[in-house]
Design brief:
heterodimer, A: alpha+beta, Ubiquitin-like (UB roll), DNA polymerase, domain 1, two-stranded antiparallel sheet, 13% strand, globular, B: alpha+beta, Aldehyde Oxidoreductase, domain 3, Aldehyde Oxidoreductase, domain 4, 3 domains, 7-stranded mixed β-sheet
């Protein structure tokens, strides 16, 4: 049995039929072939599968695909427009805030969630917010530096996410 | 401008920050089906009955694999001892042992079908503790063992024939009996380290299919593509040219992804299914597939009143779990250096590797060394305390120096350890004997601690590199080194670029594909920069020589007067007399076409004699120091790490930022195992095998003062002097934190990891109970 839902993923309107037990992560990876969201723990605590649903970060391994009915989903694949990177991606690249890269998409999406609700977080707020994203390579100092640098640029109005050209 | 010592942006960066980087679990092949397995719920049992007929008939199931598929066939494997089956045949040996597998059109169909497999167990007595397992009447985990054909003769350890002891490593120097009798003070302690998880975020994953020609193709999240090719060829009676192993990006491994893991089963299932099969473990299954060897280390040390260490005797017991893998080597590796980086006249060092009915282990970052370092470096501080010496001075007084002969017989070269320790102590404002002053145990108390480490690298070992220079002045390095997060593609590109005088962007580095890329022993043991880096440099140098020879003719100059700079060959001091690489190809081939090729096999030599434990143990030695500061809450027992400084000797930092990233990774990883990481079992049943109950350190655990420092003591054999760095910082973090806790608590010593609040509280309580 499948259930038809209406949703928007990375700006595309979709009307897929999904299995009732299918997670959002499985839907993204298996049906839409968006392989940027990663499964690390399957129980919603490592953050590798973080995507934005209506602008808020969620662990897509814990959300059923049926729950995104009427909602907007954004994955790591939606951030860059053509060659233009999102400022958070740019900062992660410049600060070398990754090693094996497996947690990186989730870490970047969580950072997007943080900065959209709190553009000027304190160091404590960053630590607290990103504590749900595990990086076993231990690249936390560089992630912290990257997040702070985006926040500082936001404060000076130096940066904004790339926007897609009109269709 | 040199391409070395600079922080080149990582070549894998753009893919990784876009979510574009491909890992094995991302692969989709036409017709691909999915594997799920049935695992034992008993720690030790005879498989009385196994019936998979219902699973076979389940709609959507493509193939089912049980012991019936292997009747009379070769189905065991292992790098040292062939003790692992593709599936269990007669017996299961730990909770999680694979009994059967299903391949189905969808993952949940495979999962449902696995539930339909009927199995009856006849429970057998089991043993979970390696020290218990060594006792005479302990249940036996493996009745017989077959040595692997490829087993190297100079591994240093002795394989035992029966019982649960798998191997013994033993090395001696002088006579500890004499040494102890000459000592003024004797210290005897027992230290323990629990089983811990690698917790790489990417689970073990593999995809396999068989080409109609009979060639086996495997994609795997492995650190050892060449070894896997050889072992799969042996297992399936194929020539190595009929096995192709491809490794995309690997999402962390830290040792857990070495040697055969998922590949034998997924390949067998694919053969039966006639379809590509993908198998990706769940997190709980990762917990049942590999972990770090728990160890119990007895250490006895005799010292003179002036702090001279006279004698040291160590007996370490490493828990291999249910299968050997390379735990034998891990135990040896710990044993070799269990006396520490000190000049000790009389040493007797012995380690055992022992089977238990617990999940199999894997090499874990540090490869057996953190377990002994925890013991000898904790005890060093107790020695200093009893002698009234500064722990820093005690270490420096006994420390190995350049040119010393180590207990293994190795002559130590490129020794920067004293320098590392002094810098670490300085960075935390070390105050000498005052650090061990008495404390009042109330509220929150602070303390600092120091520790050092010495570690070997896999020796002998082999890495081959092949470099192709294109006519446009770009180059490709073909290598089987795995990009596992350590930045190897970037640093190897830097080495080739430096040797060929090219911009780093003009050098690309392949992913391992054993059909194309040459042999590499492994991406482990922090050996890539040293061994593959040397091979890559030499391969590039061969091309450099070709360019110089062509250039000497074209420019009518002496080879010694030529240099390669930014894609041009020029006469030194006469930059207008130059030729582009394209022009040199023109000169050679009559057109700017073709390749110039260089290839080099780097073989490090050595090995240890199993009878004496001596020989040449290591192509180079890792050395590092750590200083930590903690705050211990005497009311709650919680340890907060305020500060960690790690100083490692990189030889030459090819890419300093990557060195720091690797070192910071070691630091935060061992902070977790110092404070809270441990796998817990109840009669062999794992009880914390998800990230809900077993959590690696997060950003909140990251100390606010956190510093990685590099010392550069060039190694003559390393490329441009470089040594490995990936594991160097790991060992001393646990004892540095332990020593800081002991100093904070006025000398209360904790000998069991991790430093859990309940342990701290009971330690504090016992002192308060005594003294009031």
């Amino acid at each position: 049995m499948k259930i038809e839902i209406h949703t928007v993923v990375n700006g595309r309107e979709l009307q897929p039929a999904v299995k009732p037990n299918q997670t959002l992560l499985e839907f993204l990876r298996d049906e839409l072939h968006l392989k940027g969201s990663m499964e690390g723990c399957g129980v919603g605590v490592c953050g590798s599968c973080t995507v934005l649903v209506d602008g808020r970060p969620v662990s897509s391994c814990l959300v059923l695909a049926t729950n995104i009915e009427g909602k907007q989903v954004a994955t790591i694949e939606s951030l860059a427009v053509g060659d233009e990177l999102d400022p958070v991606q740019q900062a992660f690249l410049e600060h070398q805030a990754f090693q094996c890269g497996y947690c990186t998409p989730g870490m970047i999406m969580a950072t997007k969630g943080l900065l959209s609700s709190n553009p000027q977080p304190t160091e404590d707020e960053i630590r607290d917010y990103l504590s749900g994203n595990i990086c076993r390579c231990g690249t936390y100092a560089e992630v912290m530096a990257a997040v702070k640098s985006v926040s500082e640029k936001l404060a000076m109005n130096l940066t904004s996410p790339p926007t897609a050209p009109p269709k | 401008m040199s391409k070395l010592g600079i922080n080149v942006t990582r070549v894998d960066g753009p893919a990784k920050i876009r979510g574009w980087a491909q890992y094995t679990g991302d692969i989709e092949l036409p017709g691909m089906v999915y594997a799920k397995v049935l695992r034992s719920t008993h720690p030790h049992a005879r498989l009385a009955r196994l019936d998979a007929s219902k699973a076979e008939k389940f709609p959507g199931v493509v193939a089912v694999l049980t012991r019936d598929d292997f009747a009379g066939q070769k189905s065991t494997f292992g790098s040292v001892v062939k003790d692992q089956g593709i599936v269990a045949t007669e017996r299961v040996r730990y909770v999680g042992d694979v009994i059967a597998a299903v391949a189905a059109e969808e993952r949940d169909i495979a999962e449902e079908a696995v539930d339909l497999i009927e199995v009856e167990y006849e429970p057998l007595p089991a043993v979970f503790d390696p020290v218990e397992a060594m006792k005479p009447h302990a249940p036996i985990v493996h009745n017989e063992r077959t040595k692997a054909e490829s087993f190297p003769s100079k591994s240093g350890f002795r394989l035992e024939a029966g019982g649960n002891v798998l191997s013994v490593y033993h090395v001696e120097e002088g006579d500890v009996g004499v040494g102890f009798s000459e000592s003024d003070e004797i210290f005897e302690d027992v230290y323990s380290s629990p089983k811990i998880q690698h917790a790489h975020l990417e689970p073990h994953s593999a995809v396999a299919y068989w080409e109609p020609s009979g060639k086996l193709v495997v994609y795997s999240s492995t650190q050892t593509p060449s070894a896997i090719r050889a072992q799969l060829a042996e297992l399936f009676d194929l020539s190595q040219s009929k096995v192709r192993v491809i490794v995309p990006y690997v999402g962390g491994g830290y040792g857990a992804k070495t040697h055969l893991r998922l590949e034998p089963l997924v390949a067998t299932l694919a053969r039966k299914a006639h379809r590509p099969v993908q198998w990706v473990l769940t997190r709980e299954e990762v917990f049942l597939t590999a972990h770090c060897q728990a160890a119990v280390v007895k250490i006895k040390t005799g010292v003179k009143r002036d702090g001279t260490i006279v004698a040291r005797q160590v007996e370490g017991v490493y828990d291999a779990g249910a299968f050997a893998l390379t735990s034998t080597n891990t135990a040896r590796n710990g044993g070799e250096v269990s006396g520490g980086p000190y000049r000790i006249k009389h040493q007797d060092l012995k380690t055992y590797c022992v089977y238990t009915n617990t999940p199999p282990t894997g090499p874990y970052r540090g490869f057996g060394v953190p377990q002994v370092c925890w013991a000898y470096e904790s005890q060093m501080d107790d020695i200093a305390r009893r002698l009234g010496m500064d722990p820093l001075e005690l270490r420096l007084k006994n420390m190995v120096q350049e040119g010393d002969v180590f207990v293994t017989g190795d002559k130590l070269i490129s020794v920067g350890l004293s320098n590392c320790l002094k810098r670490a102590a300085e960075a935390v404002g070390w105050q000498g004997t005052a650090e061990q002053a008495p404390r009042v145990l109330s509220g929150k108390v602070r303390g600092k601690g120091l520790a050092v480490m010495i570690k070997t690298t896999m020796t002998p070992s082999n890495s081959s590199a092949l470099v192709r220079l294109n006519a446009d002045g770009s180059a490709v390095l073909l290598t089987s080194s795995v990009e596992i997060g350590q930045g190897t593609q970037t640093s190897l590109a830097q080495i080739v670029a430096e040797e060929l005088g090219l911009a780093v962007e003009r050098v690309s580095v392949t992913f391992p594909d054993t059909d194309v890329t040459p042999f590499d022993q492994s991406t482990s043991s922090s050996r890539t920069i040293f061994t593959m880096g040397s091979a890559a440099r030499q391969a590039a140098n061969q091309i450099r020589q070709q360019l110089l020879e062509i250039g000497a003719k074209v420019l009518e100059a002496d080879i010694d007067d030529l240099q390669v700079v930014d894609g041009f060959l020029e006469v030194k001091g006469v930059p207008e007399k130059r030729r582009s690489i394209a022009q040199l190809f023109q000169a050679k081939y009559g057109a700017a076409v073709g390749n110039m090729v260089g290839s080099y096999d780097k073989q490090t030599t050595g090995g240890l004699d199993p009878r004496t434990g001596k020989g040449k143990g290591s192509a180079f030695f890792f050395m590092s120091a750590c200083a930590a500061e903690v705050e211990v809450d005497t009311e709650t027992g919680k340890v907060a790490v305020q500060q960690v400084v790690s100083v490692v000797d990189a030889g030459k930092a090819i890419n300093p930022q990557q060195c720091h990233l690797q070192n910071e990774g070691s630091m935060i990883m061992s902070l977790g195992s110092a404070l809270f990481e441990e796998m817990v079992f109840d009669n062999g049943q794992p009880i914390n095998s998800t990230f809900l109950e077993y959590m690696p350190p997060s950003m909140e655990d990251h100390p606010r003062q956190f510093q990685s420092l590099l010392v550069e003591t060039p190694h003559p054999e390393g490329p441009f002097g470089a040594k490995g760095i990936g594991e160097a910082g790991l060992g001393p973090v646990e004892p540095a934190i332990g020593n800081a806790v002991a100093n904070a608590l006025g000398g209360i010593r904790f000998k069991d990891l991790p430093l859990r609040p309940d342990r701290i509280l009971s330690g504090v309580g016992s002192v308060k109970g005594k003294g009031g």
